[in-house]
Amino acid sequence: MRSQLAGIAAVVLAAGRSTRMGATNKLTADYDGKALVRRVAEAALETGASPVLVVCGHERDEVCACLDGLDVTVIENPAFAEGLSTSLRAGIAALPEDVDAAVVMLGDMPLVRPVHVRRLAAAFEAEPGGIAAVPVHDGEWGNPVILARALFAEVATLEGDAGARKLLQAHKDKVIEVPIGEDAVSTDIDTPEALEALRARP
Predict the structure, then answer these.
(1) What structural domains does the chain harbor?
(2) Are residues 38 and 87 in contact, defined by beta-carbon separation less than 8 angstroms?
(3) pTM, full prediction
(4) Is the CB of residue 13 less than 8 Å from the CB of residue 179?
């Protein structure tokens, strides 16, 4: 039985154009028999977060085909070409009103596992005054991140090709930093070289 994350939903961002990958859409690229985006969506489901929303845009049909059979809700982002912020805004705006927080996961980070998300959630729930939780690896913030509902209105104002980092830096005193001793939270697949390195890992 999967562990439930009470009041926490998951938003998987999977609308990007993969411009640095050349002709390949990184989200639909195969890693050990599964598309990257499917691995992330499965990890989101295994955390027990509910609901799990996947924001799609570029090559929507191909990305959705990779999610076939999964209990996720696809949210369309027609403005995906304007950058990552549009997908984050679309995902957060689509959440039910009874959701207290959302874990935002990137569709190109297939090494993130449910245990990482649960560790973030435990730290978040243990600090009532916190408005976000971020993983830290080698002294740097990584992904995924948990955003409290208190931040949702500010997320709606984000613009450009950036996520919530600037917003979190503005509230740094209320951001819970969670040490993660693995590079899973800092490994995203943006280039053909990164994909080949991923496939070469043990």
Answers:
(1) 8-200 (3.90.550.10)
(2) no
(3) 0.94
(4) no
